[in-house]
Amino acid sequence: VLVLIGLLLPVVADHILGLPDAGAGGHTDEHKDLFPLDSSDVCGFMLGALGLMIAAGGGIGGGGILVPLLILVMGFHPRYAIPLSNITILGGSIANCILNLQKRHPVADRPMIDFDLVLVMEPLTITGAVLGSILNKVAPEIFITLMLILTLGYTSKRTWDKGIQTYRKEYAAANGFPVIESYAAVVPDEGDEDNGESTSLLPSETDFVNTPDLTRWSGKARQDMSWATGTIGDSDFNPAESVRMRQAIVDEERHIPFPKLAVLLFCFASVAILNLLKGTKTTESPLGVSCGSMGFWLLNLAVIPITVAIAYAVRLYLLKWYAIKSQVGYEYTEGDVRWNNRSTIVY
What we know:
Layout: H1 2-17, H2 39-58, H3 63-72, H4 78-100, H5 115-138, H6 141-174, E1 184-185, E2 199-200, H7 221-224, H8 239-253, H9 258-278, H10 294-301, H11 303-328, H12 341-346
Antiparallel strand pairs: 1-2
């Protein structure tokens, strides 16, 4: 709370008093060169490394730690602190990915990384980043800072609540108390948007209804739910086929899914190429596109339909396999996401 107040008060004061060229914390848009290093740089590097270690251990991105640190300790303007935190998080994410690729799921024979979750979130995350970068250029400073404070406040509360929930769960398990929580995920139920951390993802009777390419299952929703109790109900697969299909799914999940990685690489490469084609501050566009021209905006916004199309195709893929898993009696482990109609949209 004190950090958020520290970010807000200088900007509000500057906005009300009309101080020229002042940013958050009284800093100007211009920032000193990296060298020679001063005490704020050294302190910022040390705290940033510590913050990224804490973020990696806690499973959070680290933006909520790095952005206030860059503004309050190292004296960066919010317009620069936000992209700097993103590039810093990118380095930490690459290191985490390299380490976690070698790890296995604690209770299942498959990689620790949930590549389905990455496929769902990353394309639209890129869409949000593109729109946010445009907004960061044109929006007034007080608006950017207020949005930053609201976002940090919300994510801080969610992280705190999740930490308390995890502590209670681990304490109960360590002391032999029954753990009430079951199959929880961060997907809010209908009519309970504020309770997303504890909402079950067990399918409802309407999960198959009106699903693209899966309407042939809509008339048998009740029979298909029998998999949740451990038995195989009425489905398009006979018992022998269900057993073979379950085993095939388990065998496939044992390995890193390179086709899914290829989709991610295609998404990232498309975004990178489009950004290079429109040019940067230091390099001219190879197509001769000037900043602010029609071609510039077409290249800049072309990322959105590409990433949205990828996200939509991924959603159809996950819905298809969710229906197949439901029919063959696939057994989910705790923490797995059931990619039904609701979860594929909320994520």
